[in-house]
Design a protein that fits this description.
- The complex is a heterodimer of chains A (about 180) and B (about 300).
- By secondary structure, chain A is an alpha/beta fold.
- Chain A is about 35% helix and about 30% strand.
- Chain A has a single domain, classed as Rossmann fold (3-Layer(aba) Sandwich).
- In chain A, α3 links the parallel β2 and β3.
- With about 300 residues, chain B is mainly alpha-helical.
- Helix content of chain B is about 70%, strand content about 5%.
- A two-stranded antiparallel ribbon of chain B has the order 1-2.
- In chain B, β1 and β2 form a beta hairpin.
- Classes of the chains: A alpha/beta (about 180), B mainly alpha (about 300).
- Bound molecules: S-adenosylmethionine (SAM).
- S-adenosylmethionine binds next to α2 and β2 of chain A.
């Protein structure tokens, strides 16, 4: 199946920014849902691994089936708010991709980076905004919030995902934790 | 320090103050530690074994969640059934009552309810831009008058019924969606409505999965079965699965055989749903084809 920027924020992001996704990347994917984006990523990260966290049982069921077909997807049925619970299963990663529409999404990203994101690693955060008009404001607030919660982050880029997603911005940041 | 990992607890000694956060350092070396423990000797074993572990963990948790959900589904089903009965009997009452006021309004039930909620009295209907014929009828009606108070009550009554219907639909959607999630295979084989009935008669997916197909075949025909055992009447051939179109549309002579066959397939799929939960499109297609073939046999 074609990777469609209308149905995957990651694909929409790639139409905006060219990032270097090495095939041996270790990725922590928070909010993997039933795995439609993960299935595409698993082909790109052919020699890497995707730790796919999802806490809702219905999509999890499909994610489990998908992980049986794709050798490098590890399904983790956990709440991304509680990274210490899946820490025994997840090694350090180079990339955290987060697509969770929750109020405390920035806090979740930070908690997980603190535990799993290697030094020099990348965070790609799909941030839900209140409205299109609020995008500019959201950009500012979000980058400030990320810095505030963890000054080890350097914001590389903040991008709108229009026309595909009008209520999301993508935040790309670099992590500098020893 | 001891660290908990999926391949067992590991003991790691790090110099005091060497790392800001030692657990990050430990996590960088999971693969090495696993190799040293003798768990995943080859690089690719690590992912394979870890995945096996995570899949089985996820499945256990899914099963727990699904069992929890079954209880709310059961509540939703009984609520839905009672709501259905109640709205039917209440709308009868409302229609009777309104019929005194406007006996000539011969619309279908739902439409009448809508008219009552929107307009209420004949007077308002006459002032509205409704269908000319209805307005004519309202003008010439010889129903009794409605007081303002009565009109208010009847309109509220009708709106309430509408809301109850909406709730019923919402419940139905909830039940179907969740039944499909819990029993992907059974639902795709015989439809979520029939699955819901089987689940409530058997007391849940777990029971259904452990039930012999001979019993599934007569689920919902307990009275007939009891009579058969106590008075020697002929045994029932089918219970609630009679509602499956393959059975009730087929000839009398082959119904028993079809019911037996259907029950056997239901038993298998209940087990697949309970134990693995994996969608088995291949198996369902095969089963559907077989049933179709048998339906056509004389
Ligand atoms: C917008 S969807 C993700 C879609 C997915 N990224 C894709 O492109 O296919 C968000 C998902 O995050 C999950 N989610 C929300 N809060 C979560 C949490 N605290 N922990 C784990 N998953 C969460 C939801 O269940 C939902 O499946």
């Amino acid at each position: 199946m074609r990777w469609n920027p209308q149905t995957s924020k990651f694909a929409a992001f790639l139409t905006k920014k060219d990032i270097d996704l090495r095939s041996n990347t270790k990725m922590l994917y928070l909010g993997a849902a039933s795995g439609s984006t993960a299935s595409h990523l698993s082909k790109i990260l052919a020699d890497g691994v995707i730790y796919a966290v999802e806490f809702s049982w219905k999509p999890m069921r499909k994610l489990v089936e998908l992980s049986k077909r794709e050798k490098n997807i590890i399904p983790l049925f956990f709440d991304a708010n509680r990274p210490e619970e899946y820490a025994p299963y997840v090694e350090m990663v180079d990339f955290i991709y987060q697509d969770i529409a929750q109020k405390n999404q920035v806090e979740i990203a930070n908690k997980n980076a603190e535990i799993f994101l290697a030094r020099g690693g990348v965070l790609l955060l799909m941030l839900k905004t209140r409205s299109i008009d609020a995008v500019e404001e959201t950009k500012k607030i979000a980058s400030a919030e990320i810095k505030r919660l963890d000054e080890k982050f350097n914001i590389i880029d903040v991008l709108k995902l229009d026309p595909f997603y009008k209520d999301h911005v993508a935040i790309l940041a670099n992590y500098d934790h020893p | 320090m001891r660290y908990e990992t999926w391949f067992g607890d590991i003991e790691v000694e790090l110099e005091e103050g060497e790392y800001e956060d030692p657990s990050r350092e430990v996590r960088r070396h999971y693969r090495d530690s696993a190799r040293e423990t003798g768990i995943a000797v080859k690089e690719k074993d690590y992912i394979e074994l870890l995945k096996e572990e995570c899949i089985s963990l996820a499945k256990t948790k899914i099963k727990l969640k699904a069992e929890e959900k079954e209880k709310s589904i059961e509540r939703a089903i009984t609520t839905m059934e009672e709501l259905g009965d109640a709205t039917n009997s209440l709308s009868e009452k409302l229609l009777d009552w309104y019929g005194e006021h406007f006996p000539e309004l011969s619309l279908r039930r739902e439409e009448t309810l809508e008219v009552i909620a929107r307009y209420g009295s004949r007077k308002r209907i006459i002032e509205s831009n409704m269908d000319k014929k209805i307005i004519e009828k309202a003008k010439e009606s010889d129903g009794i008058e409605l007081s303002i108070e009565e009109e208010k009550i009847l309109r509220r009554f009708s709106k309430s019924i509408k809301e109850m219907r909406e709730l019923e639909n919402e419940l139905e959607g909830y039940v179907e969606e969740n039944i499909e999630a819990i029993t992907p295979n059974l639902s795709s084989f015989i439809g979520p409505t029939l699955v819901a009935k089987l689940l409530s008669l058997s007391g849940g997916l777990k029971n259904l999965a452990f039930m012999p197909s001979s019993k599934i075949q007569v689920l919902g025909a307990e009275k007939a079965l009891f009579k058969h055992l106590s008075r020697g009447t002929p045994p029932p051939k089918h219970g609630v699965i009679f509602q499956h179109p393959a059975i009730h549309n087929s000839k009398r002579e082959i119904r028993g055989k079809l019911a037996r066959d259907l029950a056997a397939k239901i038993a298998i799929l209940a087990r697949v749903d309970y134990f693995s939960g994996e969608s088995r499109g291949d198996l369902i297609k095969e089963f559907k084809d077989e049933i179709k073939k048998k339906e056509k046999q004389k």
